[in-house]
Amino acid sequence: MSYAREDKPYNIYGLQGTSAGLDKAVNLFTVLLPKLAKLAELEISLFRLATELKKTQRLANALSYLFIPQYRETIKFLENTLEEKEREELFQLKRTKKNHQ
User: Fold this and answer.
1) Which pairs count as long-range contacts for 45-54, CB under 8 Å and 24+ apart, including other chains?
2) CA proximity to 23, closest of 13, 33, 32
3) Residues ≥6 apart with Cβ < 8 Å to 41
4) How far apart are the first and last CA of the chain?
5) Is the pTM of this model over 0.90?
6) pLDDT tens, position by position, for the chain (101 residues)?
7) What is the per-residue pLDDT for 81?
8) What's the pLDDT at 97?
């Protein structure tokens, strides 16, 4: 975002009924306006960053509390199933050896 000041040789308000304080306020406002534009740009950037951070935090929480525990349970189940099959095969192998002797 950028702000370009147009230099005008005259003020757009009438001189009747105004004081030097108005000229001073207008000059200060023209100095402040580019800083306000930069501040608005930074505020929008921070808001967008905070929004993305919330999304990322939600995804990280979902991984930590839902997906990872589910995968650990699945891995444990598969390991137990494989161990059980291995024990069954070992038992059958021993029984087969015993019957052949």
Assistant:
1) none
2) 13
3) 1
4) 90
5) no
6) 565 666 655 566 666 667 778 878 888 988 899 999 999 999 999 999 999 999 999 999 999 999 999 999 999 999 999 999 999 999 999 888 888 87
7) 97
8) 84
31-52 exposure pattern, b = at least 16 Cβ within 10 A, e = fewer? eeeeeeeeeeeeeeeeeeeeee
Token output for 40: 């608005």
Closest CA to 29 of 63, 55, 3: 3
SS3 3: coil
- The structure tokens 């930590």 sit at 64
At 29, list the tokens: 């406002």
Calculate the alpha carbon distances from 78 to 10, 72, 88, 90 in Å.
83, 10, 15, 18
